[in-house]
Amino acid sequence: MTSRAEAAGLRIAKALSYVCRHRDELAVLLDEDGNALRALEAAVGRPASDDGSLSALLDSLHTAVRRAGDPLGVYGGAGRSVLPAGVGDVDIVYRCPLQLCIGRSGHEVDGEVPHCGFAPTGTALIRERLP
């Protein structure tokens, strides 16, 4: 059974993965109200981001995204399930270079290697073949 801390950590990792993958779309959706997105990006860039502060920042971003018209926000729900990388029948996964989010499965990547939305510009996710 998963502990509360593990469940909270996985929830944060899934949300960060979603934000990383959809950062540009979220910025357009939020338009003038992008403070929550900018605050999260700034916090992730600091070395001492703890789960509590990330959770609070993700909650603020989730609320802003829902207010802007996306009913699922950054946490998704049943309509937008994000499985941890390596789950299912995948051979290739892309891991977060900062070890913050769940990364992506090879099935979610079309051609180009994806880049981390929170690491310095140009930092690619780490491609790995599963055993």
Describe this structure in words.
By secondary structure, this protein is mainly α. The chain is built from 4 helices and 3 strands; from the N terminus they run H-H-H-H-E-E-E. The chain has helices at 4-21, 23-30, 35-45, 51-67; strands spanning 92-95, 104-105, 126-129. Strand 1 (92-95) and strand 2 (104-105) form a beta hairpin. Helix 1 (4-21) packs across helix 4 and helix 3 runs antiparallel to helix 4 (51-67). Mean pLDDT is 82; it is low at 78-83.
Summarize the helix and strand pattern as letters. HHHHEEE
**Poorly predicted segments:** 78-83
Order of strands across the main sheet? 2-1-3
Q: What's the main sheet like?
A: 3 strands, antiparallel
| Residue fraction in strands | 5-15%
Helix content: 40-55%
Distance between the termini: 25 Å
**What is the overall silhouette?**
globular
Would you report the number of β strands?
3
Q: Mean pLDDT, as a whole number?
A: 82
Number of helices: 4
Radius of gyration: 14 Å
| Helical/strand content category | mainly alpha
